[in-house]
Design brief:
Layout lengths: L1 E5 L10 H17 L4 E5 L5 E7 L2 E2 L5 E3 L6 E3 L1 E5 L6 E7 L6 E3 L2
Antiparallel strand pairs: 1-3, 2-3, 4-7, 5-6, 7-8, 8-9
Length: 105
């Protein structure tokens, strides 16, 4: 389950709250792609304005692999689980050395 709260009642959201909300969502998306399963929502002024949690992620050290680009071996696999069956739905690897993303079958 993914949960997100963002309080939009401060100066960073004036006069166009949609712009700052979209920026925060992009930052959170990058954090999730980088293996974060929880974190703070921070506005452009550095204020904490909310938080997110992603509970259905298998910990990155559960899977290991070898990067196709740089041959680095280690953890970094992310698996999104089906909340009903607990089976992995999609799995990918972000190499901690070079940043390359690879799908894993």
């Amino acid at each position: 389950m993914f949960k997100l709260t963002i309080e939009t009642d401060n100066a960073a959201f004036d006069p166009y709250p949609e712009m700052e909300t979209a920026r925060i969502l992009r930052v959170i998306a990058e954090q999730i792609e980088g293996a974060a399963n929880a974190g703070a929502a921070v506005d452009i002024n550095g204020n904490r304005v909310g938080s997110f949690t992603l509970d259905d992620v298998i910990p990155p050290d559960t899977f290991h692999g070898i990067c196709n680009d740089c041959s680095h071996e280690g953890g970094g696999f992310i698996a999104i689980r089906n909340s009903e069956s607990d089976a992995p739905v999609s799995v990918w690897f972000r190499c901690p050395k070079c940043g390359h993303d690879s799908a894993w079958d």
